[in-house]
Amino acid sequence: MKMKKVTAFIMTAALGASILAGCGSGSEKQVVIYSNADDEAVEAMKETLDANGYEGKYLFQTFGTSELGGKLLAEGKNIEADMVTMSSFYLDSAQEQNNMFQDLTFDYDTLTEFPAFYAPITSQEGAILLNTEMLSENKLDRPESLKDLTKPEYKDLLSVTDIKSSSTAWLLMQALVSEYGEDGAKDVLKGIYENAGAHIESSGSAPLKKIRAGEVAVGFGLRHQAVADKKDGLPVDYVDPKEGNFSLTESVAVVDKKDANPLAMEMAQCIVEKGRSELIKTYPNPIYQGEEADPENVSTYPKVFSEKLTVSLLERHQELSEECK
């Protein structure tokens, strides 16, 4: 869920690996894959493709969410990529504007309904993050809600992300707007920004990194990352805010090109059918029929925003955020 551009992963290797059963056979033309995924998801997808006979048959390049979203909206079918993994709301907006994706040709059975032109690969929820040692040292209460983060006791001990640079922050914004309305959300967000001060970050992972390092006591970020840190014995914990655990999905789509590479659809199918078993280890929210979440990974207040998530809604919430700084 990162927005800043990261180093591109370029995979080039000798061709000729045999394609395993279920993932098909294909030409020697490399599939260009564009993705906004975090490093953990990128590695899981690459490992899945390589293990199923596609090593050397693709070029994988990562971008920040806003950068890749801008390319999708501006370039449409002329984009270099054959396949995209991307925040689902951006795929919806790009398809509505440019009609640029093929309907997927393979079957998949999700828990909720998704459009025919993409299949979800991860689902990520937000939560309040804690450094337990710093809470104790500073004699701080554990917050129970996002509104609690406006309390004076958290001044300069709070880290959050700017929604203009990270979609992770949209999880916080959705919770505030859903619970308090836009005017009420502004009041809460102004208090949060005031307490965060210099710790308003441009990266979605920055608050957790500062939590880990003991630079702040409280933050907001991705729930599954805090769950993993706590399991690893770090002084990290998490709180499901009473306003709700909102989520964003990332999905795979195939660009509808005149000279479409048939391997792109095969690789999309391979990621969905073969990769979920690895992806769900890091991103534990069930997406497909038959998947079950570890009980300790189930959030307390899962919620869905009342409006459809679109780029225009994101921009509206970005403007709201700017008014609060």
In short:
Residues 1-21 form the signal peptide. It comes from Blautia hominis. The chain has 325 residues and is of the alpha/beta class.
Helix % is 25-40%
Low-confidence stretches: 2-27
Tally of individual helices? 9
Main beta sheet, described? Answer: 9 strands, mixed
Strand content: 15-25%
Number of strands: 9
**What is the string of helix and strand elements?**
EHEHEHEHEHEHEHEEHH
Distance, first to last CA: 23 Å
Please tell me how large the radius of gyration is: 20 Å
User: What is the molecular shape?
Assistant: globular
Mean pLDDT across residues? 90
Which class do the helix and strand fractions yield?
Answer: alpha/beta
Protein name: 2-aminoethylphosphonate ABC transporter substrate-binding protein
Pfam families: SBP_bac_6 (PF13343)
Organism: Blautia hominis
Keywords: Signal
Characterization of the model:
The protein has 325 residues and is an alpha/beta fold. It has nine helices and nine strands. It has helices at 39-54, 65-75, 88-98, 132-137, 168-196, 206-213, 223-231, 262-282, 311-323, and strands spanning 31-35, 58-62, 83-87, 118-131, 158-161, 200-201, 218-222, 236-239, 247-254. Strands 1, 2, 3, 4, 5, 6, 7, 8 and 9 form a nine-stranded mixed β-sheet that branches. Helix 1 (39-54) crosses helix 8 and helix 5 runs parallel beside helix 9 (311-323). The protein is globular. Residues 2-27 have low confidence and may be disordered.
